[in-house]
Amino acid sequence: MSETVIVAGGCFWCTEAVFKDVIGVQSVESGYIGGDVPNPTYKAVCTGNTGHAEGVKVTFDTEQVTLPEIYDMFMGTHDPSQLNRQGNDVGTQYRSAIFPLSDEQRAEAEAAIARWNESHEGQSAVTTIESGEWYPAEDYHQEYWEGEGQRNPYCMAVIPPKLMKLRKSFADKVKS
Predict the structure, then answer these.
(1) Which of 74, 105, 117, 133 could form a disulfide with 100 if both were Cys (CB 3.0 to 4.6 A apart)?
(2) What is the C-alpha separation between 102 and 68, in angstroms, rounded?
(3) Closest Cα partner for 96 from 111, 106, 85?
(4) CA 73 – CA 86 distance, rounded (Å)
(5) Known catalytic residues?
(6) 32 Cβ partners below 8 Å, 6+ apart?
C-alpha cells in the first residue's frame, strides 16, 4: 500500500536527496506549501513573503517503510531545533514543518516530534504541524541532486552530511 506525506526541513533539494535514498520510497516531489499566494514561484518563495515553505511530497510503500520511520528520518536528517533556518538558509521558507494529510499522520507527526525531543535532552524541536495547499516546484528543481546538484558547491557541502546521518541512523532502510 502507498502513502504520501509532506514535510519541510530547509532546502527542498536536500530533503529530496535524503528521501530518494530510502528503501520503499516510490517518488519524491519538491514543491511549496503553507503559504497564502496561489501558484507561487521559486523566486517569490525565496523572498519569504508568500508564507510558503520549501517542502517535499514523499510517496512510499508502507510494507517497506512505515510512517513513523519516515517521520523519524525527516526529524533525524535536518535540525528541527532551528527556527526558520537550516544552516545558511534563513527565512520562514526554510522552516521545519510537517503537513499531515490525515488525522493518523497528525498523531504520528506529534509522536515523532515527541520522540525527537526525548532523545535530544536540552533541545526542543520547533517543528510545526501545519496545513496548506501543495504546489509542485518548477521542473528544474525536481531530482536536482541527481543532476545539477552534484556540480553545485552548496549541495556538495550540505547534502552528503545529511545522507551520512541517514545511513548512520537508518542503515537498514537505505538503498545500497
Answers:
(1) 105
(2) 14
(3) 85
(4) 16
(5) 11
(6) 40, 45, 50, 52, 53, 54, 55, 134, 135, 137
Report the phi/psi class of residue 80: left, alpha or beta, with left for phi > 0 and alpha for psi in -120 to 50. Answer: alpha
CA dihedral angle for residue 23, residue 78, residue 72, residue 12, rounded to 10 degrees: -50
User: Of 125, 29, 35, 121, whose CA–CA distance to 71 is shortest?
Assistant: 125
CB 7 within 8 A of CB 58: yes
Say which CATH number the domain at 156 has. 3.30.1060.10
Residue at 118: amino acid letter? E
Whether the pTM exceeds 0.85: the reply is yes
As given in the structure block, the three cell numbers for residue 135 are 504546489
Kindly report the backbone phi and psi dihedral angles of residue 63, in degrees, each rounded to the nearest multiple of 5, phi listed first: -85, -15
Q: How many structural domains compose the chain?
A: 1
